[in-house]
Design a protein that fits this description.
The chain has about 575 residues and is an alpha/beta fold. It is built from 19 helices and ten strands.
Length: about 575
């Protein structure tokens, strides 16, 4: 427990250590109050309500119990409030660390892992792990309470109290066995929960496909299968938990029953007074409650350990490499790609690629699917690591640049449209400060103002989850306005119109041409009619440039470009 606390919990508790110390201190007071309340009732049973007793004695007893109750109120309130505060703040800190970590992991991580697993770790595992904070407090508080009640019982009759110690080895054995089993089972529970979360995400995100292919029963079946696996894993853990708790009570009850019998005979033989007997039994009865809570806390700590393993495995992953020394990139001349090769695992998608992107020019990348066009865009953005001396900006190797500085050079308009569930304005500014006229200019240049001005809330309209309240063409025009507003040196168009209908494509293409007038452009194009006026067209095949030139020049030859152009015309 100590190693788990020092390694995983303490870094998150440390900022709130005064509240933790205060909470533990108050637990001592609460334990003492409980013991004193037991002690105060003894005279009542020893003497009964004696008419000859002074009123002063009665008032003292009643007043003492009242004072203890009043003191108990703030102590109990702050004890549990501070615990909740520390647990909730620590949970927020862990969740934020995980979310920040995800933002800094390599792009490859997201292609190799399920979205549901990431969500499960941030939401479910942090919740289970946070219970470890409370479990630690409980494992400190409950023994103190138990010691106070046991001390009071020892005060009444130390010989009878020794019987309680006979059950200690059995309790320790139960705690150890149940804790290990719960920890082992909890790993499976969390994995199955991650799979369940992934199925939920797929079921919600794939609604269009589900309805189009009448896959409702199939999707529900996949969900049910994942849920049944989670249920089975959860029930294995529940079995151990619910078996251990009553077993602790049975063992304790055996000792408790034996003590009652022995205590009764000591009363009969005048070894104990009635008041002492009642006080002793009350102390032992109260002693049982912290034992039960200790057992429950032990289980929660075991679950937290399993969750901690998953959380800190994620936190320990290597972040995307960002060890460049160049913190600002001023693009003045050209971007040069020299002998670049790249593979996704064993799948080579770029093979000894060489091309040039002069400043102020419009460059098109064309080719069949899988020829490496979009991969090159990803590599320009530094989304995947590459070898040194393969891509240069004004003669400087991009691997020597900070990723933030490199990416600030580019504005991306992609076929994979992503909008936050926020207003149009927020999706344009992305948290940066812009003047109202700048926002309006971006909307006009991108032809987005045509529909934005018809909306009741104008640019303050919520776009819905991933822009679901807008049409595909409207969504893309917002992303074009966003790229224009960010005012980057180079615009990357990655098949920006491929998912649009003909009418929307025409409007979006006009918007793209509008924002590209004074910029350097690299466009991945699927419809070659849109890049006829580009300064240079690179034809890619199997990761290589097989042709390059202007549209008219390439059409004059019976080569790959001419074949692609014929295909694009149908």
């Amino acid at each position: 427990m100590l190693n788990f606390y020092k390694t995983y919990l303490y870094p998150y508790i440390k900022p709130h250590k005064l509240k933790v110390f205060g909470s533990i201190s108050l637990s001592l007071i609460l334990a003492g109050i409980g013991a004193l309340q037991v002690r105060l009732v003894q005279p009542i049973f020893d003497n009964g309500i004696d008419p000859n007793s002074s009123v002063k004695d009665i008032y003292f007893l009643a007043g003492s119990l009242l004072v203890l109750g009043i003191i108990n109120f703030p102590c109990r309130f702050f004890h549990f409030y501070w615990i909740r505060f520390v647990v909730d703040r620590a949970t927020c800190a862990i969740r934020e660390d995980l979310f920040q970590k995800l933002q800094r992991l390599p792009t490859a991580f997201f292609t190799e892992n399920k979205q549901g697993e990431m969500i499960s770790t941030i939401v479910n595992d942090t919740h289970v792990f946070s219970n470890g904070f409370k479990a630690i407090i409980d494992l400190l508080r409950e023994p103190l309470k138990a010691a106070a009640y046991l001390g009071m019982a020892f005060y009444y009759d130390w010989q009878l109290t020794l019987v309680i110690f006979l059950i200690a080895p059995f309790l320790v054995l139960i705690f150890n066995i149940s804790g290990k089993k719960v920890k082992n089972n909890q790993g499976a529970v969390q994995r199955e929960y991650a799979d369940l979360t992934h199925n939920i995400a797929e079921g919600i995100g794939g609604q269009k496909l589900t309805k189009a292919f009448n896959l409702q029963d199939y999707v529900v079946g996949r969900f049910r299968k994942a849920q049944d696996k989670y249920f089975d894993s959860q029930m294995r853990t529940t079995f151990v938990e619910e078996f251990a708790h009553p077993l602790v009570e049975v063992v304790s009850s055996v000792a408790f029953s034996a003590v009652i019998i022995f205590a009764y005979y000591r009363v009969v033989n005048a070894g104990l007074t009635k008041g002492t007997f009642i006080g002793f039994i009350a102390a032992l009865a109260l002693f049982m409650d912290p034992i039960r809570k200790f057992s429950q806390a032990n289980v929660r700590l075991s679950q937290a350990r399993a969750a901690a393993e998953r959380i800190f495995q994620l936190l320990a992953l290597s972040e995307e490499r960002d060890d460049g020394s160049i913190e600002k990139v001023d693009f003045k001349e050209s971007i040069e790609v020299k002998g670049l090769s790249f593979a996704y695992g064993n799948n080579k998608v770029i093979d000894n690629l060489t091309l040039s992107i002069p400043k102020g020019k419009k460059i098109a990348l064309v080719g069949l699917s899988g020829s490496g066009k979009s991969t090159l865009i990803n590599l320009l953005l530094g989304l995947y690591p590459i070898e040194k001396n393969k891509i240069f900006i004004d003669g400087k190797d991009i691997t020597d640049m900070k990723l933030g500085a490199l990416r600030d050079l580019f504005g991306l308009v992609s076929q994979d449209i992503f909008l936050f569930h926020d207003t149009i304005s927020e999706n344009l500014t992305l948290g940066k400060e812009f003047k109202e006229e700048q926002i309006q200019s971006a909307l006009e240049v991108s032809y987005a103002s045509e529909f934005v001005n018809t909306l009741e809330e104008k640019e303050f309209t919520l776009v819905g989850d991933r822009g679901s309240r807008l049409s595909g063409g409207q969504q893309q025009r917002i992303t074009i306005a966003r790229a224009f507003l960010q005012n980057t040196d180079v615009l990357l168009f990655d098949e920006a119109t491929s998912a649009l209908d003909n009418e929307s494509e025409k409007v979006v293409q006009k918007a793209l041409e509008s924002i590209a007038e004074t910029k350097t452009v690299v466009a991945v194009a699927h419809r070659l009619s849109t890049i006829q006026n580009y300064d240079m067209i690179y034809v890619m095949k199997e990761g290589r440039v097989v042709e390059s030139g202007h549209h008219a020049e390439l059409m004059a030859h019976d080569g790959e470009y001419r074949k692609l152009y014929a295909l694009s015309l149908g």
